[in-house]
Amino acid sequence: MVASALAALVIVAALDTTWRGLFLAKLAQKQFDETTELRNAAQWVTRDLRRASAVAEAGPGRLEFTSADGGTVAYALDGGSLVRTEGASRRTVAKGLTAAAFSADEREGGVLVTAEFTGERGGNVRTAVWVPAASGGI
């Protein structure tokens, strides 16, 4: 009877440890997924802005600029997703965002565009890209 009681305690302790380990693994996966989505958002915006010829609009949840080929590219926060629109093409580039803040600071020689993205779990990523004045500004 004592052996059965000890075996039961060992089994309960083992199950508790297993459940805690699974919970921590799931939590780590969620944090990793959020970081990946935030980095995707920053990577897309950075890549496109490096090819921008003029910045038209930058504000909370919205960025619009002209690409080097003359087309208009826009980013907008739509229900927790960052959506990229170019012409008739619309693509979700990141999910799980609670905020996307864009700003454009016109300076001599060009425009400094910054973008900051915040995830549901509180993580954030910021990027900044210089758009030369020869390209045009706001």
Main features:
138 residues, alpha+beta, five-stranded antiparallel sheet, three-stranded antiparallel sheet, 8 strands, rod-shaped
Structural class: alpha+beta
Radius of gyration: 23 Å
Shape by Cα distribution: rod-shaped
Poorly predicted residue ranges? none
Task: Please tell me the overall pLDDT.
Answer: 91
Biggest sheet, spatial arrangement of strands? 1-2-3-4-5
Distance between the termini: 81 Å
Strand content: over 45%
Number of helices: 1
Tell me about the largest β-sheet.
Answer: 5 strands, antiparallel
Using DSSP, what is the number of strands? 8
Helix content: 25-40%
User: What is the domain tally?
Assistant: 1
Order of helices and strands: HEEEEEEEE
